[in-house]
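Milestone 3.1: sequence recovery, worked example.
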C-alpha cells in the first residue's frame, strides 16, 4: 500500500514537471558531478553499483538533529533503534551494531568491544564538524575489512583550506522543546597561504524527553512512566510521576571538540585531525523503567562516562591520477556501566578502556582513461582493559568484582591487503568494478586465576585468514537510465565482546558468558537495481537485495563448569553463550524518488522493506532473525525560495507482528505495545509494534549577511509512538528553533 501510494504521487508529480531552471537544483544531484568518499578514494557516484545516500552539511543544519542518529532517521532510508535518549543504533539492511561499519575520514571507528546488540557510539560524532555523511548500503569488506556486512556509515569532516588570509567565525544555538534541550556550537575557520585551521566546540544539554499524548496502540497507557526511582535521604525511593508523558531519567549532557590543521610542504599535503567527545552520565532508561512485581529492578543504571578520542595524521603525495596516502590514527574509548539493584548498598562499576591504532597506506593509479586501480594495506591493533569495582555507597569502601570482559587484558590484530579495479567502456556506457581483500586476524584474551567466574581456562585465542571480494556493474541503458548489479562477500571476525563478555542481557533470565570457540561470520550479498534520472526534473532509484550469512552467531543455552545457571546480581540466571549455529538470509526492496512537481516545489520519498530468517540446520524450521525492522520510509514536499525553504514531511513505519519477532530478546518485544487483536490466532492478545505516521513541518531562511534561522514543528499531531525494538518512546510534539551566524 505504501509503495503504491509513493508511485502514485511520483506519477502525479512527473506529469507536472516544469523544466525551467529552479532557484535550487540541488534536490536532484547531477550524477555526473557528485563524488563519494566512502569508496576510500573519491569516485563518481554514477559509477558505483551501490545504493548510496548522501547527507550534506546544509541538510544537517536544516534537520536540526540532536544527534546523528536523529539525522539518519529523517532520511527515511536508515532505521534507528533507541534504548535511551543518549543512544542511536543504525540498522542497514537488517544488520545492526557490530555488523555495520562506521568510518571517520577513512579510518574505522568499530573497535574490539563493539557488540552485536544495540550500540550508541554514533552519538559521539558531532554533526557540526561534518562536511557530509554517506550511507553506503551493502557489503563493504573489500575496502574496509571486518564488520561491513550491512554497509558503511562514512563521516567526512569539514576541510581546512589554504588561501588569502581570512578568519571566519560561526555560532549556532538550538532549542528543542520536547526535551527542553539547548545545543550550542562555536566554530572558527582560519586560512593563510601556508596553513589552514578549523576549530569547533559543541555543548549539548538534553533534558528529560516528553512523549506524545495521542497513543498509537490499543493500550491507552502504554509507555507512560507512572512511577520512577530516585534517592532521598540515602534511600532508594519510588515516587509517583505526576506527568506520565515525561520520561524521567532520559536527559544527559555532552561536549564535543574538533580541530583540523592542514598544511602543504612541497608536494606533500599534511592533515592533523583531533576529535574528543565527552558525556558524563547517560541514564539507561529502558533498564530503569523495569519493574518486577511492582518493585523496581534497579536503583541505578548509567553509562558514566562515555568518552571517545580521535587523533589522525594524513600525508598525501601525488596528483589526481596517481597518488599515495598514508594515514596514522589512534582512537580511545572509555565506557563505564554503573549499576545497582534497587535497595542495595552495593554499586558495581564495570569500566572498559579500548585503545585502537590503525595504519592505512592507500594507492590510487589512473592507468589509462579506461582503467583505474586502487590498492592498499591496512593494519589495526586493539588493546582492551576491563575492570570491575564494587563500591559500598554508604561506607565508600571498594572491592574488585566481575569485569565485563577478560580481567587480565585482551588484544586483537588485523593485517590486510586489498586491490580494486575500475574499468570503463565509454562507448557502451559500461563500468565494471571488482576487487579482493585478504585479512589475517588474531585475538588473545587473558583471565586471572582468581577470576570470579571460575573459568576452566586461563585464556581465549582466535586466529583466521579471511578473503573477501566484490564484483559490480553499472550499465547505461539509455540517457539517464542506469542498471546496477553487484555481488559482494563480507565477513565479521569475532571480537572481544563476542568471545569474553559476561553480561545479563535479560536480568534473571539470560546471562551471557565467554565463548572460547567461535568462527568468523561470512555473508554473500547480491544487489540488482536501476537509477533513472533527469537533471532538474527527477531521480528514481529502486532495487532488491539478498544476503546469505553463514556461521551466524546466535545466543544459545550453555553451561559453565557443568552448571546451566549461576548466581548473578543476586538472581539465579540461565547461562547462554554465543555459537556459530545457523545460516541466515536477509532479503529486501527499496525505492527512492526525488521529483520536481513545479518550478520550486519538490516531492521526495523513500520506502524500504526487509525480511530476515535463519535455520539451525536444513531440517529445522526457519525462525525470524533479530534486528529486522518493519517497512519504513518517508514522504515529503519541499518549497525552495531565494534563501529560504519550507518542508512538510511524513515519517512512517509499518506493523511488526509478534510472530515476526526474534526469540533472542534483542528485539525487546516485552517493551512494545500489546494489541487487543489476536494476530497469531492463538486466542491471546499479542504484543506487536503498530504502524504509525509522524508528521513534521520545518522551514528556514538564510540572509546574505550570514544570519540564518530554522524553525521546525516535529510530531505535529503529538503521536505517542515507539520505534521497533526500542526501550523508550519517541519525542512528542516538539518546537525546534535554530539561530546561526556564519561566514563559511
Amino acid at each position: 500500500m505504501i509503495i503504491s501510494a509513493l508511485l502514485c504521487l511520483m506519477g502525479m508529480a512527473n506529469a507536472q514537471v516544469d523544466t525551467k531552471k529552479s532557484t535550487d537544483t540541488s534536490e536532484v544531484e547531477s550524477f555526473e558531478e557528485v563524488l563519494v568518499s566512502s569508496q576510500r578514494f573519491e569516485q563518481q557516484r554514477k559509477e558505483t553499483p551501490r545504493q548510496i545516500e548522501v547527507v550534506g552539511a546544509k541538510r544537517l543544519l536544516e534537520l536540526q538533529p540532536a544527534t546523528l542518529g536523529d539525522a539518519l532517521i529523517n532520511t527515511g532510508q536508515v532505521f534507528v533503534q533507541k534504548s535511551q535518549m543518549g543512544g542511536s543504533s543504525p540498522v542497514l539492511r537488517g544488520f545492526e551494531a557490530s555488523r555495520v561499519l562506521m568510518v571517520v575520514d577513512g579510518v574505522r571507528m568499530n573497535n574490539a568491544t563493539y557488540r552485536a546488540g544495540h550500540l550508541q557510539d554514533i552519538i559521539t560524532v558531532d554533526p557540526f564538524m561534518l562536511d557530509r555523511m554517506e550511507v553506503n548500503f551493502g557489503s563493504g569488506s573489500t575496502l574496509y575489512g571486518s564488520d561491513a556486512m550491512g554497509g558503511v556509515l562514512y563521516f567526512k569532516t569539514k576541510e581546512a583550506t589554504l588561501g588569502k588570509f581570512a578568519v571566519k567565525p560561526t555560532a549556532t544555538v538550538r532549542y528543542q522543546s520536547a526535551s527542553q534541550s539547548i545545543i550550542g556550537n562555536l566554530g572558527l575557520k582560519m586560512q593563510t597561504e601556508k596553513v589552514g585551521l578549523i576549530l569547533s566546540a559543541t555543548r549539548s544539554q538534553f533534558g528529560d524527553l516528553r512523549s506524545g499524548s495521542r497513543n498509537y496502540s490499543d493500550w491507552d497507557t502504554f509507555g507512560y512512566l507512572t512511577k520512577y526511582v530516585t534517592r532521598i535521604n540515602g534511600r532508594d525511593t519510588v515516587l509517583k510521576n505526576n506527568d506520565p508523558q515525561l520520561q524521567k531519567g532520559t536527559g544527559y549532557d555532552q561536549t564535543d571538540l574538533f580541530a583540523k590543521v592542514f598544511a602543504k610542504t612541497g608536494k606533500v599535503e599534511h592533515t592533523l585531525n583531533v576529535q574528543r567527545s565527552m558525556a558524563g552520565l547517560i541514564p539507561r532508561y529502558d533498564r530503569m523503567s523495569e519493574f518486577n512485581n511492582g518493585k523496581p529492578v534497579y536503583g541505578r543504571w548509567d553509562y558514566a562516562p562515555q568518552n571517545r578520542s580521535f587523533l589522525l595524521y594524513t600525508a598525501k603525495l601525488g596528483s589526481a591520477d596517481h597518488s599515495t596516502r598514508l594515514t596514522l590514527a589512534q582512537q580511545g574509548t572509555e565506557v563505564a556501566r554503573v549499576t545497582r539493584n534497587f535497595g542495595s548498598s552495593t554499586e558495581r562499576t564495570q569500566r572498559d578502556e579500548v585503545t585502537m591504532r590503525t595504519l592505512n597506506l592507500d594507492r590510487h593509479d589512473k592507468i589509462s582513461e579506461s582503467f583505474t586501480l586502487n590498492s592498499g594495506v591496512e593494519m589495526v591493533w586493539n588493546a582492551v582493559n576491563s575492570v570491575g569495582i564494587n563500591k559500598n555507597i554508604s561506607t565508600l569502601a571498594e572491592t574488585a568484582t566481575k569485569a565485563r570482559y577478560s580481567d587480565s587484558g585482551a588484544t586483537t590484530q588485523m593485517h590486510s591487503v586489498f586491490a580494486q579495479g575500475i574499468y570503463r567502456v565509454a562507448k557502451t556506457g559500461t563500468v565494471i568494478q571488482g576487487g579482493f581483500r585478504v585479512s589475517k586476524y588474531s585475538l588473545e584474551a587473558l583471565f586471572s586465576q582468581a577470576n570470579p567466574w571460575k573459568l576452566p581456562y586461563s585464556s581465549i585465542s582466535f586466529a583466521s585468514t579471511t578473503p573477501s571480494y566484490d564484483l559490480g556493474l553499472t550499465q547505461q541503458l539509455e540517457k539517464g537510465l542506469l542498471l546496477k548489479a553487484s555481488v559482494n562477500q563480507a565477513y565479521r571476525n569475532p571480537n572481544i565482546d563476542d568471545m569474553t563478555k559476561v553480561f545479563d542481557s535479560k536480568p534473571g533470565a539470560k546471562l551471557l558468558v565467554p565463548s572460547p570457540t567461535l568462527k568468523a561470520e561470512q555473508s554473500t550479498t547480491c544487489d540488482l537495481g536501476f537509477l533513472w534520472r533527469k537533471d532538474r526534473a527527477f531521480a528514481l532509484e529502486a532495487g532488491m537485495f539478498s544476503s546469505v550469512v553463514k556461521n551466524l552467531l546466535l545466543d544459545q543455552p550453555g553451561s559453565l563448569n557443568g552448571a546451566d545457571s549461576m548466581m548473578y546480581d543476586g538472581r539465579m540466571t540461565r547461562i547462554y553463550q554465543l555459537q556459530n549455529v545457523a545460516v541466515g538470509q536477509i532479503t529486501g526492496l527499496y525505492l527512492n524518488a526525488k521529483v520536481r512537481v513545479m518550478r520550486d516545489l519538490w516531492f521526495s520519498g523513500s520506502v524500504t522493506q526487509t525480511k530476515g530468517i535463519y535455520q539451525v540446520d536444513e531440517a529445522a524450521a526457519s525462525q525470524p532473525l533479530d534486528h529486522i525492522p518493519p517497512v519504513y520510509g518517508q514522504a515529503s514536499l519541499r518549497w525552495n525560495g531565494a534563501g529560504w525553504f519550507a518542508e512538510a514531511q511524513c515519517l512512517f513505519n509499518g506493523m511488526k507482528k509478534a510472530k515476526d519477532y526474534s526469540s533472542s530478546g534483542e528485539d525487546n518485544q516485552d517493551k512494545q505495545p500489546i494489541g487487543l487483536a489476536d494476530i497469531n490466532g492463538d486466542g491471546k492478545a499479542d504484543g506487536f509494534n503498530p504502524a504509525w505516521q509522524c508528521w513534521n513541518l520545518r522551514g528556514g531562511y538564510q540572509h546574505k549577511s550570514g544570519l540564518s534561522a530554522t524553525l521546525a514543528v516535529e510530531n505535529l499531531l503529538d503521536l505517542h509512538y515507539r520505534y521497533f525494538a526500542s526501550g523508550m518512546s519517541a519525542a512528542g510534539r516538539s518546537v525546534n528553533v535554530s539561530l546561526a551566524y556564519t561566514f563559511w
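The helical segments are 2-15, 57-63, 68-75, 141-144, 285-288, 496-500. The longest strand covers residues 571-598.
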